[in-house]
Structures are given as C-alpha cells and as structure tokens.
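#random but structural
TW: two for the price of one
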Amino acid sequence: MPSGAPELISPRSSRVSAARRLAKRNFRGKERLFLAEGPQAVREAAGHQDTLVELFATLDAAERYADIIGEARAAGARVHLAGEQVIADISTTVTPQGLVGVCRFIDTPFEEILAARPKLVAVLAHVRDPGNAGTVLRCADAAGAEAVVLTDASVDLYNPKAVRASVGSLFHLPVAVGVPVERAVAGLQDAGVRILAADGAGTDDLDDELDKGSMGGPTAWVFGNEAWGLPEETRALADAVVRVPIHGKAESLNLATAAAVCLYASARAQRASGGCRTVTES
C-alpha cells in the first residue's frame, strides 16, 4: 500500500452501500449524485470544479493512476482504497477498470444556456437509449457545440451507460435536462438560433442546405428516437426538417452517426467565410 494511503474500505461500509445505490435513477435523483467509472471519466470529474466527491480505487489502480489519485485529492475528494469485489459491486460494467468516482450533478439551467447565446446546440428529443445519448453528447463536444439539451422525454443524463458513452465529454460542455421540447425550441428560436430537425424523411437535403450556404448561422439540431425518429408535432416546430443523404445502398444511419454528420456539417459551415465562427490561422 502506498505511503500515506487510506486503509482498505470494508465492503459493509455505509459509503460503499451509498455508492452502490447510485446505479438506480431514483437514488441518483434523491442524492443528486452519480457514478463516473474508469480513468478518463474520473480524471475529467476531478478537473471539473466541485464535482468529484469520493473516489474508490483498487490498490492496483491507485498505483497505476497515481496522478489521478493526486488530482482527486487536490480536488477535495475522499479517496478510498477498495478490494476488487467492492469495485465490482459498485461498478455497472462487466470489466471494471478499478476506479469509480461519486460526482455531484452538473447539469446547467436551460436559461443559462440561452443567455450564453450558443451557436451550435444538440437537442435530444425522445432519445431513450443511454448509450446513444452519451455518444451524441461526445459527438457534440467533438464538433465544438456549446451545449446539449435533453428533453423531458429523453433518457437520464446520469445513467451509467450514458456517462460511460460520453467518455468524459459530459464534463466539457453545458447540458440542460428535463426541458419540454416545445420550450427548448421556442427558447432557442427567441435566442436567434435556427432549428433543424434531423429526420430520414426530411423534405430538405443536408447537401442542398450546405450548397445554399444557409447553415452558417447559429443552429440547433433536434434528434429523435432511435426507432421512430421525431413525431410530427416536433418536426412542425422546426424551421426545416433535414435528411442526411444516403449516396450508397445503406438503408439508413443510426442516431449517433447521423448526429455526427449533422453537427460537423454545421461546424464546418459556421467556420467558413461568412459563418458565425472565426477561422483560427495556424
């Protein structure tokens, strides 16, 4: 055991029991705490102000990721050394990586997102699969979006699968949760953001939108359910309903892939001449 390290925590500890309960949504909501598993997520949580509360680590992980342990302590988190079985009991993965953090909720009020006048936003409406939600959040982060909005009909942001699928991006950009889709669209439109609904049966083609030069302004993409897309009443709220063109023989694109294509198309258009972003010369 490393010098100065805490003693091995007991599997019967109340801290272990409390962490284990966070796998369930009702306990997460009650405590306003969630789990972040693995070195990448824990490192990001430690670097996000006042977020990481506790960290459970196996001895092997504490030695391998000594820098992360140091960052967790510097962030004020309680660090517990734990046996492999304790980590397995807390973790929601089949093959735990030896680090499980307990984090405070970090979602951002929707009004704060609007006040920041975002130029690129992903709105998840009726998205039910946590893996897809986390992956779209990661895509939005990679494309340079300023915010993500999860409507009240979408999956829990803090579902362990969603947190893992975001691969740390959850800690990089503001995310609003529980916003009714009508309010999300109206608020963004009032903030000068054009609303594009992504739908495979859309009347507008993404290539045509790019060719017309109509995507350089502030934009929010609305993405729907994995199986049935967006309902008609949601599509009707948008300024345009856009399909990603299928140039080959594929039947369709899955949600995360379509989201990546749409978000990067907007990011490129906004960085082009006349767009609302500035190109940085290298």
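TW: number two ↓
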Amino acid sequence: MRRRTLLTGIAGGLTAAGAGPAFAGGGRRVLHVRPGDSVQAAVDAVAGPGWTIVVHPGTYREVVKVPADKAELTLRGATRDPRDAVIVYDNAGGTPKPDGSGTYGTAGSATFTSAAPGLTVRDLTLANDWLRADHPEITGTQAVAAYTYGDRTHFENVRLLAHQDTLFVETTALDTFDRQYFHRCYIEGDVDFVFGRATAVFEDCHFRTLRRDVTFTPKGMVFAPSTARANPHGILAVRCRITSAAEDGAYKLARPWVPSYETTAWPSLVVRDTRIGPGIDAVAPYTNMREAYPWQSMRFAEYRNTGPGAVITVPENRPQLTSGDAAAHTRRACLGGWRPYA
C-alpha cells in the first residue's frame, strides 16, 4: 500500500471528481480546477488552441485524456510544488474494462494521456497507484502514469509515479519523430519505467528505482526505448541522476524494446553527464528483452557519467561516445528548431 499512503500524505486525502471547472474572468482563456471539480471536464471545456488549465491543490482521482484538437494546451499546478496537485488513478494493463470488452492494455491503463501537439504540463504529480500485491489475479501488470504522443510535448517540474511502465513516450505514428522534453522532473518505477518510440530529452531529471520484494535480479530497468530505425535520436538523458530504494546492483540501466508490431525498430538511448547511483549494475548495465534483439546490436551509449553505477569495469558492456559523437547527442540536436529550454 506504499503508493496510496504516499499520495494521501501529499494531498491530504482523496477528492472525487465532480463539478465543472471555473472560468477566469476578463476574457482570458484560463480554466481553474479546484477540489470537487474534474480535470477532464476542464479539458473538455477547452475551445481552441492556447488555453491554460490551473489545477489547485488537492488529489483528483480520475483518468484524464487530452485529444489532439486541444493544441498548445498548458496544464499546470496552482503552486510551484508538484506535490500539491495530484492526478491519480489505478488501472493496469490487465484490468478488465467495465463494459466487458476486454482489458485496458498498456496504453489504456494510463492515468494521463495526451495526443495534443504543443502540450505543456508543469508543477503537477501524475500517478498510477495500482499495486501488484493488491491484484495477484492480474498478470498484465503495466500501469502507466502518463502516456504522451504528439510533437512538442514539454513537462516541467512534474512528478511521475508508478511501478511498471510509468512514462510511455510515444509518437503519433510509426513514421513520425515526435519530440518531447522533460526538465527538472522526478520519475520513479521498477520495470521499463521510461519507454517508447519518441525523441525524448530528459534534462536535470531524477530517476528513482523502487524497492521490490522479489528474489530475482534484475528487479527492473530504467529505460526501454523502441526508437524507429529511421530516427537518428531516441531517448537522451543529460545532467540527470539515478538513485535507488533497492539494494546495490539490483537494476539495469536499460533494455531494448522491439515491439511485435514494429520489428524494424532500432532502439536508441544515450545517457550522458549523469550521476548513476549504486542501484544500477555497473558491471553489466544492459540486458535483453528478447534474445532475438540483443542490446549489443542497438544504439546504446554513455558519455562522461559519474557515480558508482557508472564505473567501467568491463568496457565492452558499457559503450562510450567519443567527444565528436557526443556533439550529435545534445538537446539541440535532438529537438531541432523547437527550443522549450530557451
């Protein structure tokens, strides 16, 4: 019950989604959501691009979906502390749908989903508090906090909390290279908890692996990219830190995900200028998801990382970029003309 206790402690109890949002005066395109309101109702009330939804302190237990026609939307907490406003739900991939049409699947389990281009989310917590221990009958244990696709997605000072598959960074189609930028975010989980096909840059973020009461290792992986072969950039983590609540060496840094629906994928991950704590296996930080797609054949590399989890003891297990190669793996190189960091 760790997750539910944590969330209640942050927000002071659960608030049921109910009434509609309050509009700001003066003709401004701003909606305010307060305890007792529904964040989804505010999203539904947005009429055109460039609106802002302000979520006031409280815990909002609901699923929120932002469709593609809500372009350039900003969803932000009313304070600068992301702990104050929490959007949380508890669907898993194997959770049966109420209408009896099957289970939600990985993407469908997400508490927060956005297909909108130009989305900005800031100063919020997005969480999925589904727990394996509470549902031993369910084998589809993916439980996504945020599922994002759509170009120019920007998360700033956001907390993303779940266990398996916390953050799904995806693209609108197999042949599009949607860009996503995460700055000063906190992301925690256990299995493949940052995964997907997008060009996703993480800068000054904190990744934390969770304690798991299992006897096997590895107990999980931080990253599982599924980058399209034609895309020169996948997941980039720069100036981040990786810590752990588990024992030393219990986690891998990454494994490649080659989906059954896109077997030509060529996963790309660069972790650079990042402090890697002892929770990551320094001797063998990468592993395979399927033997048919060994990690050694993927685009995995590191550059100037520090910390006990970054120590190079077996060089062939830790591919390193040259300084020349590193110039091609920066936020500017990945994001092109879109510069949310400016």
